[in-house]
Specification:
Strand content: 35-45%
Mean pLDDT: 84
Shape: globular
Distance between the termini: 31 Å
Bound molecules: 2-acetamido-2-deoxy-beta-D-glucopyranose
Radius of gyration: 18 Å
Helix content: under 10%
Order of helices and strands: EEEEEEEHEEEEEEE
Length: 172
């Protein structure tokens, strides 16, 4: 899986690309069953929460991508092929969302981590990902991703290619 942030002012996109079938590399052709779920348990497309579930033989990888507040990805690895995501939407959309997202059963969780994308930097350096090599004056003012307005993911997901296209525009 690859997550890429790209910018072409004044819009930015977070692209989420999955290798179709998400092969785990087993010689016998072991594959995970991957599915996408948009705003599970919430009948609105005003906010974006994308749940990808990759079920293996005895385990499940849950990825939760959200543009509620700052763009965030949550990864939870569980030792169960039937673990499920529970979202308390009332709490998630409140001012104290901590604990609004959990996995059931909680004791199946082996590992969890989160990545937050607070800012987006844009620079002129088509040949480098090493910011130290970029000349002064070629790094542009950064975007605060928390201030972005994100388009609804509704109609921007593809269950066949297991991809979703997050698009946001800056107001700064
Ligand atoms: C899955 O779990 C069962 C029961 O614990 C075990 O017998 C089996 O070997 C496990 N399979 C894999 C691929 O880990
Ligand atoms: C969801 O969160 C709200 C606010 O914290 C709480 O009052 C409610 O009981 C929770 N609902 C469930 C099903 O846990
Ligand atoms: C980007 O850098 C290249 C090479 O240093 C330069 O030729 C070009 O003018 C720069 N573009 C902008 C928009 O600053
Ligand atoms: C990037 O690298 C290629 C190949 O080395 C070179 O031809 C090109 O001019 C470089 N572009 C910039 C903007 O430095
Ligand atoms: C953008 O976010 C910063 C920091 O959170 C805040 O100070 C600023 O007012 C925001 N700008 C807009 C246009 O919302
Ligand atoms: C999903 O992607 C495939 C391959 O690019 C394409 O053929 C198909 O039309 C797409 N489906 C939707 C609903 O966009």
């Amino acid at each position: 899986m690859r997550a890429a942030a790209a910018a072409a002012a004044p819009w930015a996109g977070l692209a989420l690309l999955w290798a179709a079938g998400f092969c785990a590399g087993d010689a016998k052709g072991y594959r995970r069953r991957v599915s996408l779920e948009y705003n599970p348990g919430w009948a609105s497309s005003r906010v974006n929460l994308l749940h990808t579930r990759a079920v293996g033989l005895n385990d499940t990888l849950h990825y939760v991508w959200s543009t509620i507040g700052v763009p965030t990805v949550l990864l939870v690895y569980t030792a169960s092929d039937s673990s499920s995501l529970r979202v308390n939407w009332t709490q998630l959309l409140s001012s104290s969302p901590a604990g609004a997202i959990r996995i059931d059963p909680a004791d199946s969780v082996l590992y969890s981590t989160a990545v937050v994308f607070p800012r987006l930097w844009e620079y002129n350096g088509s040949n480098t990902s090493d910011l130290s090599l970029v000349k002064a004056g070629q790094v542009y003012p950064s975007y605060n991703l928390a201030n972005f307005t994100w388009a609804s993911l509704d109609g921007r997901m593809n269950e066949t290619t297991l991809s979703a296209d997050f698009q946001g525009s800056a107001q700064e």
